[in-house]
Every structure is written in C-alpha cells, then in structure tokens.
Write a structure and sequence with these properties.
Keywords: ATP-binding, Cell membrane, Membrane, Nucleotide-binding, Transport. By secondary structure, the protein is an alpha/beta fold. Helix content is 31%, strand content 19%.
C-alpha cells in the first residue's frame, strides 16, 4: 500500500533580484508502507530541499510552485475514530483530501502541518549532531515531543518511554538525564533517531543520517534504522550523496541531478542494470571491493546553475553521450525494460518500474560498455561533442 505520493513537485527559492532558483522540477516518486526509499545525488541537486518541503520546513524564501504530496494520513480534526478521513471532509472541495483518504501535505497550512510532524512524519535532520538543544537534558527533549502530540500521556509515562527509546537505539536509559555535550557524535545521532521515533510515525525522513561519522558508526546507524523499521513497520525516506548507503539499506531509489530525477526504480536494477549516463558516472567515481586496484573516474565539469535553467537535459554539458536532442528539451522518464525491446516509444508511467530520463535509452548496452572506459569521461571528449 502506498504511503506517500509525490507528484510533479517543483520547488523554488526566491532571490533578491526578483528571479528564483529552481531547486526541484517536476519530481515524482512514491514510498510504500514498510519500504525504505532513497534519494541520491550530488550536493545541491535538491534532495534535502525536497525532504524539507514535505513537512513545510523550507527557508523563508522557499516555496512550492506546483505539485502535490499525497500522504496516507489525515489531520485529527478531519478523521474518524479509526483515523480515516470522514466522508464529509472528502466531499468538501476546500479540504485537500482525495477520495482514497490521502491528504495533500503541500496544500496544508503551517499550523495544520504541525499536527502531522512527529505524529505521522518525523525527520532526522542533516545536521543531526547539532539538532539537540544544549541546555535541555536529552530525555526531556524526547518527552517534549511526546507530550505535544499525545496530551493524554502523563509526564511519568513520557519519561519512561524516552528512556525505553534510548535503550532501543543502544544508549543506556540513565543517559536520558545527560546533556547533548556529554554524548559522542554517534550517540547524538542515535538520540535524534530515538526522538524521531517518539510518536511512532508512519514515515521517517533520514537526511544524510551517516554524514560526518566514521565507517564503523555509519554501519551501526544503518543497522539501527533497519531494526526500527522491522520493529515499528515504519517507512523510511533516506537522503544521501553516498551511493554505498543506498546499496545497503534501500528497496527502491531515485537518482537526482540538477533538480530532476534522472533514474528511478528497484535498487538492484539501478545498480545492476544502470540505465542513465549520470548514474553510470556516479558508479565510476565510487570505489568497490572488486575495483580496488583501479583509478576512480570522476565526472568532469560542474553542476548546472539552477537560476532560470534552459529546457535542455540538465546533465548534457557533462555527459559524454549527449546528442542534439538533449539540448532541445529534458528527456521524459522512459520505461527501461520496454525501451530495451521496443525502443523509446513509450514514457514510463509506472512509479515502481525501472525508469530513466535519457534519449539514448534504446542504446544502453553500448552506453554501459563505453562508460567503463576512463577516456569516455575526459573533458576533451565532452567538449568535442
């Protein structure tokens, strides 16, 4: 069952001269219940902005220009005793609720979204190690989140639950009485995860959950997320620039570049049957056990400016496989399996299928072969196209 549907979401940041930066353009993906979905890409590609927009945490100059964020959860005042949307709310044209009961988070007010944060959707921020208030005890901060969304819970019950949550993520319960500066980096990260799980949300957004941690602690954090998912059945949206994190933890994923989704689908297909030049370039620039004796191949050039970008493919200026068509318009998402047998005659409409935004989708075998060669990714070759 689908928990979250993001449809054609475009986010902008207003700048002083009256123009705007295109943080994301027409991004679409879905997250199933109990699934781990990943968004991966270079810094500045829009993945963190997208995550913040889901729960209305954009900076003051950020705004959603168009698109919908349909979530399988209803505001308490709009729901019945089972938590489902009432028919009167569904029939009300002024309420952003679909016939299937999903609510459009993008259409909610900031006051309304506060009833959904923590209770239904919790976020582990990118700066998790700095997210704890230094003048409050760690346990008290978890208790505050519980009491805000569960006023029927007593303070003693909330404190006991906070201690239990810390223990579940590998922290001694008595450390609930300590302050953030008394925690190591890994402990702070686990404490923030415990806080995010305080109200048993349906969706957990983990933004760069392993950044600035050594590889041993990274592995432990990923293990904690997997354990929590199994125990609570929570869906997880993981955001990272590290494709190794995606390979370890995700079921499905999307690869973003320049505010666009370039490739999406099941993790195993994206890594095993890569179907986009940008993803091929990412794989080349990351070390593996089997290629330890080979030099890493970086993608030449720099990401595009997102202030008033043109209509062409966002990756074309760094892509060794770009053709004239790539300069005219950004490619739609094609179904990879269909393209390999039928060519690129049909756009991919199935969100769960393996899809790629590339006009050369019907030449994948050649692209995969050429992408392995270091000479393919030289600036001279790309400039000579």
């Amino acid at each position: 069952m689908t928990l979250l549907e993001v449809n054609d979401l475009s986010i902008r940041y207003a700048v002083d001269d009256g123009s705007s930066v295109h943080a994301t353009d027409d991004v679409s993906f879905s997250v199933e219940r109990g699934e781990t979905y990943g968004l991966v890409g270079e810094s500045g590609c829009g993945k963190t902005t997208l995550a913040k927009s889901l729960v209305h945490l954009l900076d003051d100059n950020g705004y959603v220009e168009n698109g919908n964020v349909w979530f399988d959860g209803t505001l308490p005042q709009w729901s019945d005793e089972q938590g489902d949307a009432t028919q009167s709310v569904i029939d009300d044209p002024d309420k952003p609720v679909r016939a299937d009961g999903k609510t459009d988070l993008a259409a909610l007010t900031n006051a309304q979204i506060r009833d959904i944060r923590w209770r239904d959707i919790a976020i582990i921020p990118q700066s998790a190690m700095n997210a704890l208030n230094p003048v409050y005890k760690v346990g008290d901060q978890i208790v505050e989140a519980i009491l805000r969304h569960e006023p029927e819970t007593t303070a003693d019950e909330a404190h006991e639950r906070a201690r239990d949550l810390l223990e579940r993520v590998g922290i001694e319960p008595d450390r609930a009485d300590d302050y953030a500066h008394q925690f190591s980096g890994g402990m702070k990260q686990r404490a923030v995860i415990a806080m995010a799980m305080a109200c048993s949300p349906d969706l957990l957004i983990a933004d760069e959950p392993t950044t600035a941690l050594d590889v041993i602690i990274q592995d432990r954090i990923l293990e904690e997320l997997e354990k929590l998912q199994e125990e609570f059945g929570v869906s997880i949206l993981v955001i990272s620039h590290d494709i190794s994190v995606m390979a370890e933890i995700c079921d499905r994923m999307a690869v973003m570049y320049g505010g666009k989704v370039m490739e999406s689908g099941p993790k195993d297909e994206i890594f095993g049957e890569t179907a986009n030049p940008y993803t091929l370039g990412l794989k080349n620039s990351f070390p593996t056990i089997t290629s330890a004796d080979q030099d890493l191949v970086s993608i030449p050039g720099t990401p595009p400016t997102l202030r008033d970008p043109d209509d062409g493919c966002r990756f074309r200026d760094r892509c060794p496989f770009a053709i004239e068509e790539c300069h005219a318009s950004h490619p739609p998402m094609y179904d990879v399996e269909a393209a390999e047998s039928l060519g690129r005659s049909e756009e991919g409409t199935d969100e769960r299928a393996h899809r790629s935004a590339c006009y050369r989708i019907d030449e994948l075998e050649q692209l995969r072969t050429d992408a392995i060669e270091e000479s393919t990714w030289t600036e001279q070759r790309i400039e000579s196209r």
